[in-house]
Specification:
0% strand; elongated; 5 helices; single chain
Length: 159
């Protein structure tokens, strides 16, 4: 049975991974579709503005805080190895750390950086924009699912 401070840690991990899944789901289901419908110059400018706003404390606390919590959950799980839920806790941590946080670093951020180097009205931006939307959204779908499944698996560890 998971209880005490470890229980609280897992519950906060559920909230963080679930909130992150919600943000990614919103982007995958309507934000990117709306941006893709804009002319490329406007879409590029809007996405660059969104990417700049995303690295503010409100989102970064939830996103990176969930990575820290997932790492802590994994470490505590290895140390105390609960009678029930240990595998689920490790799976949830791996899903978030690799499928959400890690994937952001290797798939989404490089695309954001490339987009940021482009002038919104330039021909290069117009050419890159459709590929950016398609690729970025695909990897965002993966991040959304990984974050949601991490939250679900954490919940299962507590049941």
């Amino acid at each position: 049975m998971i209880d005490g401070p470890f229980f609280v840690l897992v519950v906060v991990g559920i909230l963080g991974t679930g909130l992150t899944a919600g943000v990614f789901c919103a982007f995958s289901t309507f934000v990117m579709r709306g941006l893709a419908a804009l002319p490329p110059a406007q879409g590029v400018a809007a996405m660059n503005a969104i990417n700049g706003a995303a690295v503010r404390p409100a989102f970064m606390t939830v996103f990176t805080g969930s990575a820290v919590l997932s790492a802590m959950i994994a470490v505590v799980t290895f140390v105390v190895w609960p009678d029930d839920g240990g595998l689920e806790l490790l799976l949830g941590s791996a899903l978030y750390l690799i499928g959400s946080f890690g994937l952001t670093i290797v798939a989404n951020v490089p695309r954001n950086d490339r987009l940021a180097r482009l002038t919104p009205g330039a021909p290069e931006a117009a050419v890159y924009w459709p590929a950016y939307v398609r690729e970025w959204t695909f990897w965002n779908h993966v991040r959304a699912v990984a974050s949601a499944v991490a939250a679900l698996v954490y919940v299962l560890a507590l049941t």
